[in-house]
Design brief:
Blueprint lengths: L2 E2 L2 H6 L13 E5 L4 E6 L2 E8 L4 E8 L4 H17 L3 H10 L6 E2 L1
């Protein structure tokens, strides 16, 4: 479930932006934790943390200041990831929701 950013979220995700109306960005975890979905003033993003290799992968869909559209996409993406958390299915869900392919950071 999407929730507003907390102080600890700001520490972990520097660079995330508030919306023009000063409302806070939204965040949720999916797939039992390795996936994080963020909705902010620049769009919606998904990050994946691989504990084994200590690497991050990410995908971002830029929809500046379109909080409503980004929230819908984020909820749909979260539901799809939670339903089938394998990387292959997650990649398909990301593409189905209109986000570009994930890239390692």
């Amino acid at each position: 479930m999407l929730r507003e950013f907390t102080k600890s979220d700001w520490r972990g995700f520097a660079g995330v932006e508030c919306f023009a109306d000063d409302s806070l960005p939204l965040i949720t975890e999916a797939g039992e934790g390795p996936f994080t979905i963020i909705v902010d003033a620049t769009g919606v993003s998904v990050t994946f943390y691989n504990e084994i290799y200590d690497t991050f992968s990410a995908s971002r869909l830029r929809l500046p200041e379109n909080k409503a559209a980004c929230t819908i996409i984020a909820r749909e993406l979260s539901e799809k990831i939670n339903a089938a958390p394998s990387m292959e299915r997650v990649r398909a869900a990301i593409t189905a929701c209109g986000l570009p392919a994930m890239e390692e950071l």
